[in-house]
Amino acid sequence: MGRIKSALEIALEKTESVKGDKTIASQFESKQKGKKIANGFLDDPKKSIEEEIKKCPREEKQSLKQGIYDVLYSQLILPDTEEILTRVETAVKGLQVIFGDSHFNQMAKQLSQVLHQYMEDAAQYEEAIKRQYAPKLKQKEEEIAKRLGKKVALDPFQDPEFITFYNQNMTALKENYQAAIDQVKEAAAELAEK
């Protein structure tokens, strides 16, 4: 009668022929290092991505750049705060360093202007939405005040009806500006493939 093998023994037999490839491991490590460099750059834009790339051995540069690119590319979004706007602009500056492409640099400048305009428009839009909804909110406050017997001030963002109204209107604004982000993302993806 034959010996019954354990699952571990079977797995070891199947993986016996698989040998570790040092270049794959090195590329993986370089990519991870690139991601750390990119995150460090996003936290402190004074850090030099260019210096880190120069320090990297030639055979690992592509993987390092890919890691940096992956992190920076993921930051290309429409901002909703000044902090996120700064992070997006920092990510674009990092991508400019990686690509060194004059056309991309021009797109980056335009994107910065568009994002600043978006932030201004979003703030104005929000105020306009609140003003437009104010009569309805006041009516709700009066109804609640009658029931409770005391004056009540509602935050519009606590009203589900306002939130729906707000989201519908802000979505329309975001769609208008999303095209600029998509264009830069597309250009970045094309440059990354080269």
Question: In a nutshell, what does this entry contain?
Answer:
The protein is mainly α and 194 residues long.
Number of strands: 0
Shape: flat
Based on secondary structure, the structural category is mainly alpha
N-to-C SSE string, H for helix and E for strand: HHHHHHH
Number of helices: 7
Low-confidence stretches: none
Distance between the termini: 60 Å
Arithmetic mean pLDDT:
88
**Main sheet summary:** none
Strand content: under 5%
- What is the percent of helical residues? over 70%
**What Rg do the Cα atoms give?**
26 Å
Which descriptors would you attach to this protein?
194 residues; mainly alpha; flat
What does this structure look like?
- The protein has seven helices and no strands.
- It has helices at residues 7-15, 22-43, 49-55, 61-73, 82-99, 102-148, 160-193.
- Helix 2 (22-43) packs across helix 4 and helix 5 (82-99) runs antiparallel to helix 6.
- The protein is flat, with a radius of gyration of 26 Å.
- The model has no long low-confidence stretch (mean pLDDT 88).
How would you summarize the topology of this molecule?
Layout: H1 7-15, H2 22-43, H3 49-55, H4 61-73, H5 82-99, H6 102-148, H7 160-193
Helix pairs in contact: 2-4, 2-5, 4-5, 5-6, 6-7
